[in-house]
Amino acid sequence: MPAMALAESGTKTKEQQVAQEAVNPLTTSYWIPIQYEFSEDVGPNDGTRHTTNIQPIIPFEISEDWNLITRTIIPVISQSDVTADGESESGIGDINATFFFSPDEAVGGQWTHGFGPTVNFDSASDEALGSGETGVGLSYVGLTVQGPWTVGFLASHTYSVEKGVGDTYSTTFVQPFIDYTTTWGTTFELTSETSYEWQGDEWSVPVSLTASQYFQLGDVPMLAGGGIKYWAESGEYDPEGVTLNLNLYILLPRS
Q1: Which of 120, 157, 188, 246 could form a disulfide with 135 if both were Cys (CB 3.0 to 4.6 A apart)?
Q2: Torsion over CA of 78, 84, 85 and 87, rounded to 10 degrees?
Q3: Homologous superfamily in CATH for domain 3-252
Q4: Is 50 exceeded by the pLDDT of residue 174?
Q5: Residue 99 — very low, low, confident or very high, per pLDDT cuts 50/70/90?
Q6: Is 21 helix (H, G, I), strand (E, B) or coil?
Q7: pLDDT score of 3
Q8: Looking at the whole model, is its pTM more than 0.85?
Q9: In this structure, how many other beta carbons lie within 10 angstroms of the beta carbon of residue 130?
């Protein structure tokens, strides 16, 4: 486990520790976050979209000093009137996998970070649900945990590679986040998933506010909650205005 995640653990409740691990992108626990989002006013035809992202996090200890944290995002999408009036599509979108190599020792004893490749697979079951081309790039994440606060950011840049590097898309993504976790395991998060697509000169700037609560189902620790997302800037096939989301985090036991 990264040194940051254990900082001040003696002064924290179990609920607070587990809840902070759930929102830590470099957690060394096995988590399955599931996030559902309902969107209206999507695309030029003001359609609707239901998106469920299944995001297993699988860490590996590759040496005494380094961990590898794999984060996969599997989107399940159902949408209507997005590509054209009366048209609907459903299925799997493009699957994204990121591999963070993270040193055990925090920089300056306070800044935990990781870096590595990210791959956006051309896996969509319908061409309307994906980019149409595999992309590769690099990703970085850094954060600090200070008492109840978790503050950091994730950044990546991905190029399409099948028709020529960056010919179809070249996308920069930045996600700053601020989390506050109470002693009883409630986490409040403010984040923005900002992206810029260089080929199309297109911004997407959603800002999210969510709340999640720790609980146990039998012996299985979980977090559940929800929130809202405001689209300050929308791309052509993004929602407009406010979208609603629900989330569930499931902690899996380690053998």
Answers
A1: 120
A2: -40
A3: monomeric porin ompg (2.40.160.40)
A4: yes
A5: very high
A6: helix
A7: 40
A8: yes
A9: 21
Q: State the DSSP string of 111-166.
A: BEEEEEEEEE----SSGGGS-SS-EEEEEEEEEEEETTEEEEEEEEEEEE-SSSTT
φ, ψ of residue 28 to 5 degrees: the values are: -105, 20
Pairwise CA distance, residues 159 & 116, whole Å: 15
pLDDT of residue 69: 98
- Which of 63-67, 99-103, 251-255 has the lowest average pLDDT? 251-255
Please provide the size of the chain in residues.
Answer: 255
DSSP state of 19: H
Side chain identity, residue 144:
T
Quick check: 6 pLDDT over 60?
A: no
Phi, psi of 33 (to 5 degrees): -80, 140
Whether residue 83 contacts residue 50, with contact meaning beta carbons closer than 8 Å, is answered with no
User: Which tokens belong to 197?
Assistant: 């697509």
